[in-house]
């Protein structure tokens, strides 16, 4: 018996040694390859990028990816190594080259974001993306949006101004303090819910809505899942996230069921087809079938999330810049007052685009300096690789992070790139520079909702600025007097980047005193 035990122990010991030996040999071989033979070793970057993705993943989890990548680019150049299998690219011309073709498909981080079904944003499939774009395209054309401009003005601008007027009255009639991050987010949420579902959720009136809370947490979770797919489990084990996820899914599912019922009973009557109707009646070219409920839910939640967060955050940064640069703000106010002196007539987006040249320049400069899509978007280099400027070759099947914020800070294109200077977008040269602003992406997967974003910005902000005075509260820790010691520019509110780059502390940094103009 003791002999058998000794023999078994010896066998177990031997097997353990074999396993340890194999693992050790594999580790040595792997490290040797990463250190000396990986084709990406010719790309400059920090030493650890040859061996690990941990620092990169941590920055995605913490929402500090922009600071993380910026520091590496400033030290090593426009094309840098950020992990064993990936690079980051910050030159605008290189980014446009990659975005111009479906040849460079989205990286695996995009598919990692999926939780319900692949959608127009997360899909890596060219045919699928083309199909979804065709299905929803009519909603976002200039002609399509022109039919809903009155609705957008009513649901967005008029409702927002009514809410502000109410809060001023309730505060004594002279002024009130609002959180403009919240106000813009609720406004965009009401607009996109009306356009997407034909249903106003009245978040302006109520000061919020659970679907906005869902959007805020989902943007963060999408970024986290892109770094560590296993974190999908958070949606199923954390009670608060579980509740919001169920509410978000049910919100979309209820709208889908109600619409299908109306269509089946021939009771659906509308002067326009909203996004839900476009999707619910569309045929998938992949299988010649209608979209499933999971497909519809995924697309609708994406549309509501993108429509709520991106435009509202862009307007937040614009107003934030105005408060930091009072001379710019005064020019904007004067231009709006001169172009549209009759306050009884609403300012329409086409009129604003035509007459508010300086205001439009400030929008471009805000989107350049603080793009809401500033964090990297990922593409694969294809089986042939890709040749970038300066004869830099990215090997096949490499994940490329396209760093929009970095492209917007390129000193070869943007003189004094860290300065907020709307004048750079004026005149003929300014028109050329507008094409260098990549906040909506470029090429075959350019943001389909960009026309809606411009319509909201050109409608909401000019009407608000004409009617109200804005100023920072006395207790604000930010302002034109608080400047960066190195750049001499006013210090911006701290940001965090989870898909959308937004203020990190909006409840602290986005408060403003608002009053009626005399």
UniProtKB/TrEMBL annotation:
Annotated GO molecular function terms are: heme binding; iron ion binding; monooxygenase activity; oxidoreductase activity, acting on paired donors, with incorporation or reduction of molecular oxygen
Q: Which UniProt keywords apply?
A: Heme, Iron, Metal-binding, Monooxygenase, Oxidoreductase
Q: Does the keyword Phosphoprotein apply?
A: no
A biological process (GO) annotation for this entry? secondary metabolite biosynthetic process
**InterPro entries named among the record's database cross-references:** Cyt_P450, Cyt_P450_CS, Cyt_P450_E_grp-I, Cyt_P450_sf, Cytochrome_P450_monoxygenase
**Cofactors (names):** heme
- Residue positions binding heme: 447
Check the record and name the Pfam families matching this protein: p450 (PF00067)
Give the UniProt family note: Belongs to the cytochrome P450 family.
Q: What is this protein called?
A: Cytochrome P450
Species name: Smittium angustum
């Amino acid at each position: 018996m003791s002999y058998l035990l000794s023999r078994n122990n010896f066998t177990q010991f031997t097997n353990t040694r074999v396993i340890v030996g194999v693992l050790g040999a594999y580790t040595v071989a792997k490290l040797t390859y990463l250190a000396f033979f990986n084709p990406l070793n010719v790309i400059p970057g920090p030493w650890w990028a040859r061996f690990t993705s941990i620092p990169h993943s941590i920055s995605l989890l913490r929402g500090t990816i922009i600071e993380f990548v910026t520091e590496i680019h400033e030290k090593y150049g426009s094309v840098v190594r950020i992990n064993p299998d990936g690079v980051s690219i910050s030159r605008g011309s290189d980014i446009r080259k990659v975005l111009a073709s479906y040849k460079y498909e989205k990286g695996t981080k995009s598919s990692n974001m999926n939780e319900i079904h692949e959608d127009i944003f997360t899909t890596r499939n060219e045919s699928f993306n083309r199909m979804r774009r065709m299905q929803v395209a009519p909603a976002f054309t200039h002609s399509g949006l022109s039919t809903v401009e009155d609705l957008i003005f009513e649901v967005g601008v008029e409702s927002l101004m009514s809410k502000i007027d109410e809060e001023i009255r309730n505060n004594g009639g002279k002024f009130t303090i609002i959180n403009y991050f919240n106000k813009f987010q609720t406004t965009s949420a009401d607009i996109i819910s009306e356009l997407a579902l034909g249903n106003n959720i009245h978040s302006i009136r109520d000061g919020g809505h659970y679907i906005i809370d869902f959007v805020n947490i989902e943007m963060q979770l999408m970024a986290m899942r892109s770094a560590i797919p296993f974190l999908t489990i958070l949606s199923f084990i954390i009670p608060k996230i579980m509740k919001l996820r169920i509410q978000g899914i049910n919100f979309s599912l209820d709208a889908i069921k109600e619409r299908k019922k109306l269509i089946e009973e021939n009771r659906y009557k509308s002067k326009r087809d909203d996004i839900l109707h476009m999707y619910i009646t569309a045929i998938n070219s992949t299988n010649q079938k209608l979209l499933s409920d999971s497909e519809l839910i995924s697309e609708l939640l994406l549309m509501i999330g993108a429509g709520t967060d991106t435009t509202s955050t862009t307007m937040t940064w614009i107003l934030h810049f105005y408060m930091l640069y009072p001379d710019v703000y005064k020019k904007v106010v004067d231009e709006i007052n001169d172009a549209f002196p009759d306050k009884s007539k609403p300012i329409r987006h086409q009129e604003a685009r035509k007459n508010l040249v300086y205001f439009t320049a400030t929008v471009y400069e805000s989107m350049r300096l603080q793009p809401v899509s500033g964090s990297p978007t990922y593409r694969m280099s294809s089986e042939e690789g890709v040749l970038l400027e300066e004869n830099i070759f990215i090997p096949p099947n490499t994940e490329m992070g396209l760093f929009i914020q970095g492209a917007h800070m390129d000193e070869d294109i943007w003189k004094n790139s860290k300065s907020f200077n709307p004048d750079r977008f004026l005149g003929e040269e300014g028109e050329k520079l507008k094409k260098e602003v990549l906040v909506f992406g470029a090429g075959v997967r350019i943001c389909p909702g960009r026309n809606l974003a411009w319509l909201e910005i050109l409608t909401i902000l000019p009407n608000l600025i004409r009617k109200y005075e804005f100023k920072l509260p006395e207790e604000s820790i930010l302002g034109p007097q608080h400047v960066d010691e190195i750049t001499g520019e006013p210090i911006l509110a701290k940001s965090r980047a989870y898909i959308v780059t937004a203020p990190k502390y909006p409840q602290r940094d986005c408060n403003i005193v608002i009053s009626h103009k005399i």
